[in-house]
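Appendix B, example 12.
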Amino acid sequence: MKTIKNLKAEEIRKSILQLAIQGKLVKQDSNDEPASELVKRIYEEKKKLISEGKIKKDKNESYIFKGEDNCYYEKIGKSEPVKLDDLPFDIPDTWTWVRINNYVQKVTDFVASGSFASLRENVKYYKTEEYALMVKTQDFQNDFTRDLTYTDKHGYNFLENSNLFGGELVLANVGSIGKIFIVPKLNKPMTLAPNSIMVRFFDEEHLPWFLYLFQSSFGLNTLLSISTATAIKKFNKTDFKTLLIPIPPLYEQLRIINKIKSFDHLIYEYNKYETKLTELESTFADKLKKSILQYAIEGKLVKQDPNDEPASVLLERIKVEKEKLIKEGKIKRDKNESYIYQGDDKNYYENLPSGWAVFRLNDFGLYKKGPFGSALTKAMFVKKQTPNCVKVYEQKNAIQHNANLGEYFISKEKYDDMKSFEVKPGDIIVSCAGTIGEVYRLPDDAPIGIINQALMKITMYDSSIADYFEIILYEALHNLSEKSKGTAIKNIAPFEILKPACVFIPPVNEQQRIIKKVSKLNDIILN
């Protein structure tokens, strides 16, 4: 688990931005005007500009609102409203979702002024100063001091649709996806160069929120989601206009912006400290932790006790439990079931510590991947206050090791239909998408629930070894991932890759001694 000590400065900033865009960085104020009212005013302003002939009406204009069931709906043009089931994350009640094109005054690019042929004919490029500056993304990095490109007055007038006046946002939409800049006011004619998209707002107060939003991990991933999967990634303004973004009340936007700025100095100071760390220092702790876990699973971390019950006896108990479940029809017999034992020649197991045994991961419990696709959607969720409702466990429960996170619940009837995905205290959940391989055993006070699509669950045959199993499972997942370069275990599937993996298991008492030792050493490393 990462701590503040081993996070990079840029990762810390992205974490702050992610909290900001999800409404978790500052407190909501019930006195704030809801964001929906802000969006309504922008709609009215757009209608005014349309009536004045300054902008064109969008034939597929989208309007997003919250229904009586507390869910978001979208009405496009004259069509019937449609429920938005796959929103990226939950937002506070005073926030709203909106399509980019319905929040800003203008989204445009270089080719908005004509065909490629007409652009070649009418727009000339100069490397010496001419009438208008053609703004490129690299100009922001060079602080507009070198390698500038200009066009003449005719070219500037021809590019009227993409002229800049300062205070707009410019995003790279070819190659360097994620680069985003605020256009400075340079007191000279400016127009947009190719390979960028310009966004102009009704009020520059709205600009900082948009900037921080697209500097966050969510913003980058959103842009990548509409980018082509070719060698040079790119996206177009049409797809960009339709992206869904979260909008807070205007006053909360300002509080969030001030809060983010208050962290800038701290991040700067941390970055200076970070750069002073040598490569040896930065890699030593990670290598030490891996070495500790490796020693643990090889039986070299604590002394063996000849009085401990051998792990082979534990294996026999588990086999008895499996046979019982097979007879009860609760699980099926594995046609390729194997039994690993220590040979008389001891050649294969000659390096195993006394009392240890070899298990396959499949020997420890029942594995179950979360429901597929449409088997569980947001449309099926009910409010937390619904009688007899059942919790839906999400990936963040596994990643953050917290069983109480999340606000998704299903009805008792739906739970009965999805009983095979049930998890209860003592079960282990594993994150299977995005952040892959995080392992978390549900504590004794965890509510009974079901897993969603991004999780796998493991129900142990013998709970007495669950603590140690967490360690070896975590190591097995990451070892498989490294060996396969992330492909074979991309979604913890198929199970056939994971379950046959062999692991060494010590006696139960020795497991407890190892767990205590690992915990103690980890505390020393992290502190």
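The longest helix spans residues 250-276. The radius of gyration is 29 Å.
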